[in-house]
Amino acid sequence: MDSIVSLNNSSIANKDLEVVDVDRHSKSETWIKQRVDELIKEVKVMLHNIAADPLSQLDMIDSLQRLGVAYHFEEEITESLSKLNENTLSDHGDLNATALRFRLLRQHRYYVSCDVFNKFRDEKGSFKSSLQSDVKGLLSLYEAAYLALPGEDLLDEAIIFTTTHLKSLVDRLEKPLAKKVLHALEVPSHRRMKRLEARLYISLYEDDDELRNDVILELAKLDFHLLQSLHREEVKNLSLWYHDLGVKTKLTYARDRMVECYFWVLGVYYEPYYSRARMMMAKFTKLFSLIDDTYDSYGTLEELQPLTDVIQRWDEKAAAGLGECYELLIRVLFGTVKESEKELAPEGNHTA
Description:
mainly alpha; Glycosyltransferase; 2 domains; two-stranded antiparallel ribbon; 14 helices; 62% helix; elongated
């Protein structure tokens, strides 16, 4: 694998977005796709082989999710978590195992009571002092606690407890574990954008000699490359679409946010089978941005009222005479809706 390349786009916080790359000069896209298919089959076998070891299952599912490749194993993960939800985990007082099970099940919308952590509290209701040196357990509890429901004070206390002790320990930890702790303290994984988390976690996973599985690591890198190529193609096509609208030269008051709007949508769903929905949503997000700029930065109240009436009545012809900018905005809005309807018409529905 090559190291890292940068995709520089001023629309994304004026900062380089580092992405994983592969040796594109020696490996074709066809080879990479075939290799990914082979690796997926290998990982499915591994998931099946560790079915009798719940903790290994949890660790692997967590890694697959954070590396951004879990979408290849939805059926296997659903089946595994369903069984883990039905059966009590024999964790023998292992905080890491208890917290990891709690987090993964809650992430998949299973209800797990936070009472499972009561056994880690002393008679005064505080977390046991013996946990203060259990870095893996503290880290796992820290991540789990951010899935708290309103009123779960125990998990609020867990955040304070784990944050305090992880910060006090981090400078004394070996580098791989220290990097994981710092990564979590910056932003818990549950709150991160999945694509960026995958990129960052690939490096953390690669450095973790205890957890790393080379088959999964190779899959994560190759799969990231394939999705990266798809996402780049999508954002290129969206930029061309926006350019062809003529908006940039005529609605000069509007912010040029096409790439930014796409990036927002990428945070909602990144999987390849959502490509069409992603493209449509990015276009409409950009239209909402145009409308927002028109109302906030350009139009007067007297001009915007008839524009609002046209949109509410959904009457494109009524836009005649509103003014060049408003007519273009309506034309773009109606045209994009019609384009989407036409694309969906063969399927007999109006959803992407």
